[in-house]
Each structure stands twice: as structure tokens, then as C-alpha cells.
Amino acid sequence: MHTVKSLVKQLEKLGIDRKGTLLVHSSMKNMGLVEGGADTVLDAFTQYMKAGLLVLPTHTWSYIHADNPRFYVAQSPSCVGILPELFRKRSGVVRSLHPTHSVAALGRDAIEFTKDDHRFNTPCARESVWGKLLDRRATILLVGVDLRRNTFIHGVEEWVDIPGRLTNHEEMLYTILPDGTEIPVPSRRHCGLPWSEHFWKVDKILVRKGAMYKGQLGDAEVRVCDAAAVAKVITKMLRDNPDLFSDNNPLDHK
Fold this sequence. Notes:
By secondary structure, the chain is α/β, with parallel strands linked by helices.
């Protein structure tokens, strides 16, 4: 059975920068038996990253939309798993204000990192937390999930301005602060095909290019992504082929 101590040792083996910025996408069920469950996993991440910045996505895109437009920062649950949902409620954690693609952060510069996302009308604006991951040369850790759950790649597509990824129109959403303040947030949304279901296609290429490597945390296979290297590789691929993620066909690369 996995414990805080054993999970921290695995994180050390993965070589993650304790003083850097770490974003975690996760599937708790794929980690196997953990003494104390999800809270133990969060304890391990928090302990390991105590000198850095720990970030988890707390997205609400599945239910915040024009017909249900109010995102309550302190109350609206995450739609991307148990670890983000528990993490956002922890003492000292700061949640960003984007109505559909918020994150929660704990540690160094958490307030600075999370501020202002509600000022942008797209899910992954270059100046948002997703672009800050690039600026900080963050590590993105995929625990028991693959590249299809890597929101950062949506950001790369947005920054390269791949057509057909976002709605042309804005819908009016609202971010509600804990004190009741209501902030209007005109928002474009991801649209069309589930493009992220095609992100797996670049798995082997990212490994070969040194932008990603694989390891283990608990029982789960993990992918350790260098955000800056991933952005560099995928940006070039998208500029060469804007339709890279437009189908689910494997890439024919030697």
C-alpha cells in the first residue's frame, strides 16, 4: 500500500523540481491502494512542493455555460476528478477566476500566478495561467492519464491560432467571488470535435524529442512533461500541419 513517504520517494525518482511550478492532471483510481486515500496523495504533493508552486486544474466547463452562467469561486465543484476537488478546499489554496478553466494553486506566488484569468475571453489565453506555465518552464505531470487530458496542449493550439477550435461568439458568464461580487466574463468556448481526444498522437514524438518521459507514481503510469519543450515541439508541428489534431489517425513518423 502506498503512503506519503513512498509517494514522495517516487516523486524524487521522477526528478521533479521541488522549487519549480508543477501542474498535476490525475486519475486517483489508477494510483492503486493508498493509505488514507486521495488526501494522502495531496499530502505527498504538498510536502514535496513546499518550496515551489503546486497547481491542479479545477475546471467547470462541463456545466458552466450560457444556460448556467455563474461560476462560484468558493463553491463550484471541479469536473475533473477527486484530487482537484479536495485540493481546492484546502487551507491556503488559491483558485483562479476563469469561469470554465480555473486552476487551484498552493505555494510560492500562488496569488500572482492565479490572478487576472477572468480578464481573458478564451479558455487558455497566452497571458493566463496556461501561458504562465510556459513562462515558468513548469512541469506538467499526468498521473494515470495520457495526453488527452493535457489542457496545456489546448493552449498551444490557441496560441498558434488553429482555426475551428473556439466559438466566434462570446457567451456571457459570471464569476462570483466569495463576498458575492459578480464579475461579468464574456467567454468564447472550445467547439467542434473533441480535439483533445486526438492529442495522444504526439506521445512518442514528445518522448523522442526529450519533451516528455514516463515513470510511475503509486501504481499509475505517469508522463512528465516539460511545458516549454512540449510547446516548442507541438508549435512547430502545428505550423507545419494545422490539421495535426483534426483526426484520430496515427502519425506516420519514423
